[in-house]
């Protein structure tokens, strides 16, 4: 197995690991208000997020950036909470796409810092970290797209088969994620 394949696999497995469900929650709440016909908007959002976390992963891997892990672990559920609150239907009319993309990019920076310790431990003393970093990020993106696929598929089923409105579906998912992320944040308050 090539180095590319190894790090690619580690990337998508890391995203889809149910023990680290915070990333799954973020991607879920990010795209739960969209349907299949909105695939371009979803792709832009996921790409903005990937750019953010790729940048901080690279900065951390090259040892340019080093942050307190406890604060990052606390901020990750805060980003999920903010995204879920922003996603609530009463705010949908006020949604600003530029703000959402900027917010998603910024939150990607924070989530990338959460991945950085994991990636640094994988890289160890690697002489050339460019290819492992690239393949790990591509694996992360692939994993995110799998999450997006299942969320959109579930959304389409709820809207078309069970006649749930997009507003109600988005409210349901966002409300559940608000509760989960709030508890996660409380559990991770740095002391």
Automatic annotation (TrEMBL):
This is HupE/UreJ family protein. The lineage of its organism: Bacteria, Pseudomonadati, Bacteroidota, Sphingobacteriia, Sphingobacteriales. The keyword RNA-binding does not apply. It holds the Pfam family HupE_UreJ_2. The keyword Lipid biosynthesis does not apply. Keywords: Membrane, Transmembrane, Transmembrane helix. Signal peptide: none annotated. The chain crosses the membrane at residues 20-36, 43-62, 68-86, 98-118, 138-157, 169-186.
